[in-house]
Fold:
Amino acid sequence: MFFWFIATSILVIHYVFTDPQFDYRMLIVGSIVPILGDVAGGWMSPLNSVTIAVGLLAIVMITTIGRRQTRRFLLGLPIGFLLHSVFGASWNTTEVFWWPFAGIDVGGIEGFVFQRGIWSLLLEAAGIYLTWWIAKKNDLTSPRQLRSWSRDGRLTFS
Structure:
């Protein structure tokens, strides 16, 4: 499930922050990186933990002091991790969400993608539709606009 996390993260940031300067590229990366542990191992990885997301946020904030452009670019990464936790329902599994404070071993816990059965397919279908809608709304079907987005990561929703 990639599109579900990508689309929901983009829409939440767009409608909550309403910042036309927000760079969505790292948000997309942050929203799908935790899937790698789930799919590769078939278990909820510590990447779904709020500890990892908050730790990553602290690293970004500390290492980008005085470098506003770099911070603006990287800030989407930990936000994507946090939104993945929300839309992946990792908050529903104490051992995963509070890793390592609730225990280190998360090997026996099935990932969101595998637990939900048909619901995973329905959510992914919704994500594909929403991603298409976002691309259409931002004219990302145009090669010129797509190149512009790949350089600055901004979406206008016009």
The chain has a mean pLDDT of 86.
